[in-house]
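User: Could you go from structure to sequence for me? I need the amino acid at each position, not a summary. Structure tokens:
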């Protein structure tokens, strides 16, 4: 029964994709150049480097600095969770190291 429905479905799908015998490919005029092509430039790396881990200091706002400092002191559980996460990542990396062949001398 399942096979009968799949054959029916397949014939409907393939029939929907057919084009008639009188199909003609439409002619399409392409420009010699594109207007966006003249402004294209190769991407360059950021001259300032990576984003600083203390990005909020760039705003030079004492209120924001105080909020970040207070939240870091109050959220010790987040810091502990991050440490546990990094420990778990290190353990996974250590256990995966056993999957690779080792080379020794002697």
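Assistant: Here is the amino acid at each position, in order:
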């Amino acid at each position: 029964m399942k096979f009968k429905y799949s054959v029916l479905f397949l014939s409907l799908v393939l029939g929907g994709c057919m084009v008639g015998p009188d199909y003609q490919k439409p002619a399409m005029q392409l420009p010699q150049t594109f207007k966006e092509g003249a402004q294209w430039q190769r991407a360059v790396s950021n001259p300032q480097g990576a984003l600083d881990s203390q990005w909020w200091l760039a705003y030079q706002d004492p209120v924001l600095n105080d909020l970040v400092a207070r939240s870091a002191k109050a959220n010790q559980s987040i810091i502990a969770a991050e440490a546990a996460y990094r420990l778990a990542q290190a353990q996974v990396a250590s256990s995966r190291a056993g999957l690779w062949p080792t080379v020794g001398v002697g």
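One structural detail worth keeping in mind: The longest helix spans residues 76-97.
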